[in-house]
Design goal:
Elements (H helix, E strand, L loop, with lengths): L6 E7 L6 E9 L3 E6 L2 E3 L1 E5 L5 H6 L6 E9 L9 E8 L2 E9 H7 L4 E10 L4 E9 L5 E5 L10 E4 L2 H6 L10 E6 L6 E7 L4 E7 L2 H23 L1 H13 L8 H8 L3 H9 L8 E7 L4 H12 L6 E7 L8 H10 L3 E5 L6 H11 L4 E4 L5 E2 L3 H11 L5 E9 L6 E5 L6 H4 L9 E4 H7 L10 H12 L3 E12 L13 H18 L3 E5 L6 E5 L7 E7 L3 H14 L5 E8 L4 H13 L3 E6 L5 H11 L4 E5 L3 E3 L4 H9 L4 E9 L5 E3 L2 E3 L5 E3 L19 E2 L7 E5 H6 L12 H11 L3 E12 L11 H17 L1 H6 L21
Parallel strand pairs: 16-17, 16-19, 17-18, 21-24, 27-28, 27-30, 28-29, 32-38
Antiparallel strand pairs: 1-2, 2-6, 3-4, 3-7, 5-6, 7-8, 9-10, 10-13, 11-14, 12-13, 14-15, 19-23, 20-24, 21-22, 21-23, 25-26, 30-37, 31-38, 32-33, 32-37, 34-35, 36-38
Helix pairs in contact: 4-5, 13-14, 14-15
């Protein structure tokens, strides 16, 4: 769902300059800023704004036609003579209202502590209240709750470090633990007053607890959002949005909270699991390093393990907090309560790898299950792992899907639905993460966690395990909730920059172990990595381009390579097929005469894309083949090198590129079998600067197939699989070819850093006649008959929880 281009997310006053009012939100690109108090213009400026909260990063789609900005408005010292503040986005004579508010509302916030509520959950039926957010001022802010009679409410207010907020207030230092989480289980009938107070200033926020007042507040919120949308897009667009939201189910994004509730096993299913008796009953050792873990979080983790429907487990807790550990009492309590819980205390504080290794050494199980000290397993997690082991006894490694969980454990978001094992995706990002399970014998073989990779010790460990594993099992179910509080990497990646440096070293170490020369650098986002493969020589690439007339397209295609490419050892094989224009043949002669690396070969049969390319390959001399459409145009100078780097690896058979339509939207970013009922390109028509689900558009990764509009192939692999299948004359021959490459034991890689324009279908006509449509249907049937398993079981590089009805990797509807 695209964000509104005119939308304010936050507002506050500058802490040191009381007259400066700051607004943060989405701003339309190319528009100027103007601010007015009534009709009097006031000084205003804007600068880029980086969202820092994980909850905000997830809830906001990437801006496609706008940008996130901080707007500074300088107000006069006296406001009483004014009524309203207006902030406009202006372009020429066009003026759009970006923000407006009453001066009276400004005065309520002026010279007061600043605060922001990220969660406000009131349940009058259960009498509960949960508040989550932060508060900041020039001095430390104290927080208290009062009822409607001004009596102080006794409750636990947990203060948390918020590096993201500290970094946001550039004008002066604010207290590190400016975050807060409040939980109240008996709320007053009318309202709760939340007070923020320093020595000099205070402000009060009213949380309505009566059902009617809550509904009224919600209505006011929708009214405000509706008016913002109306000002930005007009009444017709607002009406269409309301209709889509309430009457067109397909336009509504899937509510993950409802989705996960229906996909987690219910009481009946859990009871059935408890009664299941497996032929193979492995002992699972859950190993957890502890370090001054908040007791509430630790208890939730332990209880989630005790609630497992598969009961053959032991919990190995290594407390690396040191001699003065605050966890002694609670650990002693649980150890006495449950004999399956083992506690290791240490006199000296331990770092993460040492701490985890201590738990591993104490474990006696057949499989080691890795969990963080403040996260939660779903009750069926170990059952699903036991089921996987029984289905395939050679299983060495198991991993599952996961999501993130709010600090109070009541909100789930950002589900990560993963593919089956995907080596090149793993080299781009640690997508495996949680839940991760490894066989004890495998761990004994590869060794334990290595302290030199602390911060990414799990990433390094996953690499070493998967390198040696005989069978890797992916369970496409959410079995792990990753708590997203402010100190965790889940919430605030910037808080652990050292972890990302260690991650790059972990990827590099993997390449070194498997004997692949490569240089690894950080990617476009924290936690992503980019690989540059180091070649020992420059092999000849034969660029095979079928062509029928359209010499302007062909010339643009060839010129883009000759003028831009930094890789020079290539030849062009132009496969002429049934051109009718004299100028085409004249140009061919001129081309061959003027360029020594161009050869034109002539195909005399009917149009058959597979046969034409196979014919071109016979004339090629190259060790590597680049199948290329004539309606493409290379963008980046190192495009050939990017394709070749992956293709020269011994385990890779074919490599595809990121292709754009002429309007800079995605034409191809990999292929998923099953899209559109047969096969389709990923993320079609997404904007060029959009990175897609879990940044998958910009991640190098393995797919079942890539398009032959631009596909590099090892010649020996091309010949080994018999080239393109000539019974598939027009459609799906590249899909079939890639499936053959995969069946032969090679990887098919999508490399987003090889970029081209693809002007699409200029080489031939559309499927617009009865004959063409009949042939198209025959080729669909033929593909399904040749590859029944993948159509029945689903694409292993996709996820069954994601929809096949669209190509954006969104959740499958319930």
């Amino acid at each position: 769902m695209k964000p509104q281009l005119l939308e304010v997310k936050r507002d506050r006053f500058h802490l040191l300059e009381d007259q400066v009012y700051l607004l943060q939100g989405n701003w339309p690109k190319g528009y100027d800023l103007k601010a007015y108090l009534d009709k009097q213009e006031v000084p205003a400026s804007k600068e880029p704004w980086e969202s820092t909260s994980a909850l905000e990063r997830f809830s906001e789609s990437e801006m496609l036609n706008g940008e996130k900005v901080t707007v500074s408005v300088r107000l006069p010292e006296e406001l009483s003579s004014f009524k309203r503040l207006f902030v406009y986005a202006c372009a020429g004579s066009e003026r759009k209202t970006w923000y407006e508010t009453a001066v009276g509302e400004l005065e309520k916030k002026w010279k007061r502590p600043q605060f922001f509520l990220e969660e406000e959950l009131v349940n009058p039926a259960e009498g509960t209240l949960r508040l989550r957010g932060w508060a900041a001022d020039r001095e430390d802010v104290q927080i208290a709750l009062f009822d409607q009679d001004k009596k102080k409410i006794s409750c636990q207010i947990q203060r948390t470090a918020r590096l993201d907020v500290v970094q946001m207030y550039k004008e002066c230092p604010v207290q590190e633990k400016c975050g807060f989480y409040i939980e109240l289980n008996q709320i007053p009938p009318k309202a709760v007053y939340l007070m923020f107070k320093t020595k000099e200033r205070k402000c009060v926020y009213v949380v309505h607890t009566a059902k009617g007042a809550i509904l009224k507040k919600k209505a006011e919120k929708y009214w405000t959002k509706g008016m913002d949308y109306y000002r930005a897009h007009g009444m017709q667009a607002l009406g269409a949005k309301v209709y889509r939201k309430f009457f067109t189910d397909k336009e509504k994004p899937v509510d993950y909270q409802k989705w996960i509730a229906k996909h987690l096993p219910g009481p009946g299913e859990l009871e059935k699991q408890r009664k299941t008796s497996f032929a193979v009953q492995p002992l699972f050792s859950i190993v957890v390093p502890l370090y001054k873990t908040p007791e509430k979080f630790l208890e939730q983790l332990i209880q989630s393990i005790q609630n497992q429907t598969y009961t053959k487990w032991e919990l190995c807790l290594s407390d690396g907090s040191g001699a003065d550990s605050p966890l002694k009492e609670i650990l002693e309590k649980y150890q006495k309560m449950d004999a399956r819980i083992r506690v290791l205390a240490h006199e000296e504080p331990l770092k993460i790898s040492e701490n985890t290794n201590a738990a591993i050494e104490a474990a006696t199980g057949d499989y080691l299950v890795f969990a963080d000290h403040d996260d939660v397993l779903t009750p069926n997690a170990l059952y699903e792992c036991a089921l996987a082991v029984n289905n395939e006894p050679k299983t060495d490694v198991i991993y599952s899907d996961e999501d993130k969980m709010s600090m109070d454990g009541n909100k789930f978001f950002q589900p990560h639905m993963k593919p089956d094992f995907n080596l090149d995706l793993l080299c781009t990002v640690n997508y495996i993460c949680h839940l991760f399970v490894a066989k004890r014998t495998l761990v004994d073989k590869v060794g334990m966690l290595r302290k030199e990779f602390d911060g990414a010790q799990d990433y390094d460990f996953v690499f070493r395990c998967t390198e040696q594993a005989e069978h890797i099992c992916h369970i496409p179910k959410v079995l792990y909730h990753w708590r997203s509080h402010e100190d965790s990497t889940a919430e605030n990646p910037e808080s652990k920059m050292y972890a990302f440096d260690a991650g790059a070293r972990a990827v590099a170490a993997h390449y070194e172990r498997i004997g692949v020369p490569a240089k690894v650098e950080k990617g476009e986002y924290l936690g992503l990595y980019r690989t540059h493969f180091i070649r020992s020589y420059d092999p000849l690439i034969s660029i095979i381009i079928p062509n029928k007339d359209h010499i302007r397209d062909l010339k643009r295609c060839m010129d883009s390579i000759e003028e831009k490419s930094t890789y020079r050892n290539y030849e062009f094989i132009i496969v002429e097929n049934n051109s009718t224009e004299d100028e085409t043949f004249a140009w061919y002669k001129e081309l061959e005469a003027s360029k020594g690396n161009v050869k034109v070969v002539y195909w005399d049969g009917e149009f058959n894309y597979s046969a034409i390319n196979n014919f071109g390959v016979k004339a090629a001399k190259g060790e590597y083949l680049l199948l290329l459409n004539n309606d493409t145009e290379m963008i980046n100078p190192d495009c050939l090198e990017e394709l070749l780097g992956y293709c020269m690896r011994s385990d890779v058979g074919a490599v595809g590129a990121r292709l754009y339509y002429e309007d800079d939207t995605i034409q191809h970013a990999g292929v998923v079998i099953g899209f559109g009922g047969i096969a389709g390109h990923c993320f079609v028509q997404q904007k060029r600067d959009f990175t897609g689900y879990c940044h998958r558009i910009i991640c190098a990764q393995d797919y079942s197939a890539v398009t032959a509009a631009c596909m590099m192939v090892k010649r020996k692999v091309y010949e080994e699989v018999g080239g393109l299948s000539e019974d598939l004359k027009v459609a799906f021959n590249d899909i079939d070819f890639c499936l053959k490459v995969g069946a032969a034991g090679y990887l098919v890689v999508y490399n987003p850093y090889a970029e081209l324009y693809h002007y699409e279908s200029k080489s031939r006509g559309l499927e617009d006649t009865p004959e063409k449509l009949a042939r198209f249907q025959r080729e669909i049937a033929m593909l399904e008959q040749k590859w029944p398993d993948i159509f029945q079981k689903g694409d292993p590089y996709y996820n069954p929880n994601l929809t096949l009805d669209s190509q954006d990797f969104s959740l499958k509807r319930i």
